[in-house]
Amino acid sequence: MNILVCDDDKEIVEAISIYLKNEGYNIFKAFNGLEALEAAENNEIHLIIMDIMMPKMDGIKATMKLREENNIPVIMVSAKAEDTDKIIGLNMGADDYITKPFNPLELIARVKSQLRRYTALGSMETKTNLFKSGGLEIDDEKKSITVDGEEIHLTPVQYKILRLLTANAGRVFSIDDIYEKVWREEAINAENTIAVHIRKIREKIEINPKEPKYLKVVWGVGYKIEKL
């Protein structure tokens, strides 16, 4: 597996690289957002660890640009611990978020978790590889999503959420249900995280996200894909 580590602090890049090399990963290095985009374009990268505050192009803008064409998992790293920064990162397409200073073992665990999701998006047991609700269609074998014939691009986490809901169209999933089935870990204060991803999914699959046709909220209960 190839991991790109991007941070303007070269000592941090070297330290993270050592941790990950010890786990058997191949490491690519970048020191600003522009270099990260270039590395992702020219190499087969399976995961990016991206700092937020960097010169030339910060991690937020780099992730936004990356998401235009690529669903590589992104773990954002920042010295800021406020929830707003976490939500901004998730809004822009990040799949996970860790704050400095971090425990190397925690970082490695998050890396392994994201890589498992990325390489096994179809791992949940299903009876078919095709899920439909009205004009919304997911081909799980090809990992493609179309709405009225138009292809939609989601991040890996967004894909798993939409796949879970569409495969069970009409069934309401609580916030904790969604988090635990997608993240495969206990849900703790997951409401903001799920809400951010739901909003981003709606922006991509709905004609009018404020009056959704497919992805509905059931107040006080959770979310569902309407069975059409």
Largest sheet: 5 strands, parallel
Low-confidence stretches: 122-127
What is the helix tally?
A: 8
- As a percent range, the share of helical residues equals 25-40%
Shape: globular
- Tally the beta strands: 11
According to CATH, the homologous superfamily of the largest domain is Response regulator
SSE run? EHEHEHEHEHEEEEHHHEE
What would you call the quaternary organization? single chain
Share of residues in strands? 15-25%
Lateral arrangement of strands in the main beta sheet:
2-1-3-4-5
Distance between the termini: 40 Å
From the helix content, strand content and strand pairing, which structural class follows? alpha/beta
What would you say this structure looks like, in words?
The protein is of the alpha/beta class. It folds into 2 domains: 2-119, 3-Layer(aba) Sandwich (Rossmann fold); 130-225, Winged helix-like DNA-binding domain superfamily/Winged helix DNA-binding domain (Arc Repressor Mutant, subunit A). Helices cover 40% and strands 21% of the residues. The protein is built from 8 helices and 11 strands. It has helices at 10-21, 33-42, 59-66, 83-91, 104-119, 156-167, 175-183, 191-205, and strands spanning 2-6, 26-30, 47-51, 74-78, 96-99, 130-133, 136-139, 144-147, 150-152, 215-218, 222-225. The termini are far apart. Mean pLDDT is 87; it is low at 122-127.
